[in-house]
Amino acid sequence: MAHWRGVLDEMVRERRSALVAYACLFVVDRRDAEDLVHDAIVRTFARPRAVTEVHAAEGYVRQAIRTVFLDQTRKRQTWRGKAHLFDGASSAPGAEDAAAAATDVGAALRVLTPRERACVVLRYFDDLPVAEIAAALHLSQGAVKRYLSDGTGKLRTTLQVGPPDHQDDFESVRVTDQGRSAR
User: Residue 29 and residue 36: Cα distance in Å, rounded?
Assistant: First the structure.
């Protein structure tokens, strides 16, 4: 057996659950995550590689998970844009509607757009700096910062965490005749 096959077998045996957990951060549903990992492994090892250790193989597969996820998202968006051209095609409601009322992290991740989700996962799970996220996703650093800002804002709102709402403070302040505020 070729050495890369032994590394592949060992990686699947030892690191499969970690790879599925990583993929769950992108697609949330476990079955979809398993499919994503399978597609990434096939894409990574479709041709023989000079991989000599499990850690390096896992890195290749993690990169492929991100790539496959973004490719699938693009295909879905393209299909949605052309589905109306086919007779009888109807658009299904998005997962965002179902996740709006939920407060767990999985449901909160569903609220994010695919780019926001990818940026948030790469930044806060993989601990990559903005420059590396931009390079990995072929985006500008400014776009990555915007996706991170929008994504974390949506997560704070959905999970109801973050800075407290100070609206009550503003309602209790009234302006006196002299223009000074009083409580």
Answer: 10
